[in-house]
Hints:
six-stranded mixed β-sheet, 7 helices, alpha/beta
Amino acid sequence: MKYKCITGGPISENCYLLIDEKTNQAAVVDPGFLNDVLLNEIKKYTVQRILLTHGHFDHIWEADRLHEMLGVPVCAYETEAAFAADDKQNGSLLMMYESITCKVHEAFKDGETFQIGEVPVTVLHTPGHTAGGVSYITPDAVFTGDTLMGYSVGRCDLPTGNSAELCESLKKLAALPGNPDICGGHGPVTTLEDEKRRNPYL
């Protein structure tokens, strides 16, 4: 497998393409924007799913449009669909003064595993930044959204945020085996060992 990180949008969010090199199948993780760079990359692959780590507006902004373009499901944790569809909860009215929502078509449960091509992906419920936040675990990388990102963590003072839950989620991530890449929602891609050494929250 490989992945590509493309940054854009109103808060410099990271969108990822998770790619199975054997089958050329892929998933788009957190499409908070659609720029020419991202669209040109998407055209190279057969996208199977749109994956949301959580429902904040800056990570879902173009999910509906991408669903219409590709005809593939938007997927999130089972309790996050309502959050992503609520412009009062997901921060769009508060921060952008406009309604930004998306529809979730496929709901995941904690511990569920699916495949992108031949790449196994496991859903790990990592609440704290939002109640329905998840991380997507693959053999080489973990897509952590705003739970863990570039030597920092997501804020807990927005709707459904919870600092105690975030601490427990960080413990789950710190306990993962090996040294996978940490692909957060903002900031640089790091590794789990780097985060353990340099992130004060771990």
